[in-house]
Design a protein that fits this description.
magnesium, single chain, UDP-N-acetylmuramoyl-L-alanine:D-glutamate ligase, ribokinase activity, alpha/beta, Ribokinase, 4-stranded mixed sheet, 9 helices, globular
Length: about 290
């Protein structure tokens, strides 16, 4: 089947810094690189590199044709990416010597996707496919409703986290993925823990500790592989893309999560975002201590 991704497309401007800047601090970067990024683009590339057929629904500005071409190069169907007059989204990312980061996002064209564009794209979707969204575009609720009506498995990566955005799509979800901080923020906002949610599949990522998968409230833990992290940017998106590809290919969820953990472990050993996401061959051949 096809994974349909209503997803952001960004230029990721990554700055190497000796430490993450504090309030009011001016800090000289020791390096700068530009990568294809955005949570949506990262997930599309990860799922494609994991062997899935991926169709990306999004938008770029006049300055973003390079990003669309890069997605095509990585095996993503880009026929449903529109060119708009709003500048392409971008992110300013600071990465410290320990691989931790902070990120400033400019949404730009990611919030200029039209309802007609969405409808035309999903008119090609077949029942049994997957639809994934993140909180970096407009039309999330409209897409979730449409996906449910079309018989798609509706998936949501709850980042950047906003409780009202998650609550708006919850009634339509089959799969929710969020990190442990976001899970606690959702509990505080709704009074519900992840085990209370009426969502069949929930994954809470735990950073260096791995991931916890809930199937109708029953939890299973999947420990992370031990590696030396140099850059955590995009690791969560890589994990999500690999999980979705595993689901699409009919893998048992335990196998899909374990493979996604391997991909995320490789990802944190690399500097960059979509351009350095490992492919399936690398993930399968990787050796961890």
């Amino acid at each position: 089947m096809t994974i349909w991704n209503l997803g952001s497309i960004n230029a990721d401007m990554i700055y190497a810094v000796p430490h993450l800047p504090g309030p009011g601090e001016s800090l000289a970067a020791t390096g700068m690189e530009r990568f294809l990024g955005g949570k949506g683009a990262n997930m599309s590339v990860a799922a494609a590199r994991a062997g899935a057929q991926v169709a990306h629904i999004g938008a770029v500005g006049p300055d973003g044709r390079w990003a669309q071409d890069r997605l095509t190069e990585y095996g993503v169907d880009t026929r449903h990416i529109d060119g708009v007059e709003v500048p392409t989204g971008h992110a300013i990312i600071a990465v410290d010597a320990q691989g931790e980061n902070n990120i400033i996002l400019f949404p730009g064209s990611n919030h200029a996707i039209s309802q007609d564009q969405l409808g035309q794209a999903l008119s090609s979707a077949q029942q049994g496919g997957l639809l994934v969204m993140q909180n970096e575009t407009n039309l999330q609720v409209e897409a979730a409703k449409m996906g449910r009506d079309l018989g798609l498995t509706v998936c949501y990566a709850a980042a950047p986290f906003q409780a009202d955005a998650v609550q708006a799509v919850l009634p339509y979800l089959d799969f929710l993925i969020l990190n442990e901080i976001e899970a606690e923020q959702l509990r505080q906002a709704t009074g519900q823990s992840v085990t209370d949610l009426e969502v069949e599949h929930v994954i809470v990522t735990l950073g260096s500790k791995g991931a916890r998968y809930y199937h109708r409230g029953t939890a299973s833990d999947f420990p992370a592989y031990k590696v030396k992290a140099v850059d955590t940017t995009g690791a969560g998106d890589t994990f999500t893309g690999y999980v979705l590809a595993g689901m699409d290919r009919g893998m048992p969820m335990a196998q899909a999560v374990s493979q996604a953990n391997r991909a995320a472990a490789l990802m944190v050993t690399r500097h960059g975002t979509a351009d350095v996401i490992p492919d399936l061959k690398e993930v399968r051949e990787a050796r961890f201590d």
